[in-house]
Amino acid sequence: MLFKNICAAAVLTLSGMAAGHAADTMHDFNFKEAVDRAVADGTLDGSVKFYLAGTKSGGKVIEKGLVTNKKTNGFAKSAESACDHVLRSALIQFQNTAKAKGANAVTNLVSFYKSNETRSTTTYRCAKGTAIAGVALKGDIVKF
């Protein structure tokens, strides 16, 4: 029993040290291409449109400044693959919220990782560490 406790303590210590040294690397990927892939393969149903800040405005804002913060297992996955997967999770959440509120678009989308806002008219930002990839987005639910 003592040996098991010592081994468990050693594993926890080593994994804590590894986590402390595994900093997230920020990546920027093409937002439109990722959304188009998700619609094409049926992950998103296409009933809700997504627009980065500065690319579309107008309509009636139903709810402003909604945030989604999604994480996924990124271990042994490329940044592009892990980030594409986690972006889909974030967009599914926005799609479901928009539909539930009678809206058909999410506008003014910005990357919002660790509450740091990053605006782009073409890309989204994703953090990829050794084991985890994360995407946080902030946007407005809109009815056109």
Automatic annotation (TrEMBL):
Residues 1-22 form the signal peptide. Keywords: Signal. It comes from the Bacteria. The keyword Signal applies. This is Excinuclease ATPase subunit. The lineage of its organism: Bacteria, Pseudomonadati, Pseudomonadota, Gammaproteobacteria, Moraxellales.
